[in-house]
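Sample A.
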Amino acid sequence: MAISSRQLSRNSSGGSKNKKTAEMLVKLSKDESPFTRIPDYDYTKLKKGITCASCNSFLISVKDRQIVCDHCGHEEDTDASILRNVGQFQALFPNEKITTNVIYDWCNEIKSKKTISRVLNRNFLRIGHGKYSYYAECGD
């Protein structure tokens, strides 16, 4: 809540000193927290791939239906890993449509678009058909 210097000086009886202090406080106050600012980023410049759910390492291997971290040994189901990465993509790019091709590129390690399509079809609502289809949350 922003407070004007007039409100501060009206509520205090210290005269011009309080008014100057109030004006300085109003100048210094910011409506936006510096912690809510997000740095600029570009999709093409980001490193793509699945990270380990435990240690965030990009050093993973796909074995059968498991993602195995080569760094810490953590194992995760491939479907769960794809869904986790869809969530990360949505957090970074909330205005972008979720498509099989986009998630295939984003995950980078999953070599089958069919696997990604299967996971998206099971967990999201498909809108449209063919190359123009995209996925939305079931509740949207």
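Sample B.
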Amino acid sequence: MRPCSRTPASGGTSAYWRLLGFLRAHRVRPHLFSGIEFQMGVFIVAPLAGMFSVVAMLAFIAGSAVLMLAFEALLVYKLWRHTRRFERVDSDIRALLP
């Protein structure tokens, strides 16, 4: 199995594509941490950790929030990049049409 089946159209390897290949090779998807995992971290794991330490509870809540925001930002960035690529391909197709 190849680490990354998709490569950039330019053929180059940027840090983004190397990271994506690494994550795919280890079966990690960009949408790994979603709202369900956030709720589990805040409403199940954090109170259990809070039984032992308030700092641990706050750390789980903060960590869940940071991970969810990071993965959501990644999804928005990927959507933006695909939109830009679509606009470029659309303009190329329109240029070919009479």
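B remarks: The two ends are 43 Å apart (CA to CA). The chain is about 70% helix and 0% strand.
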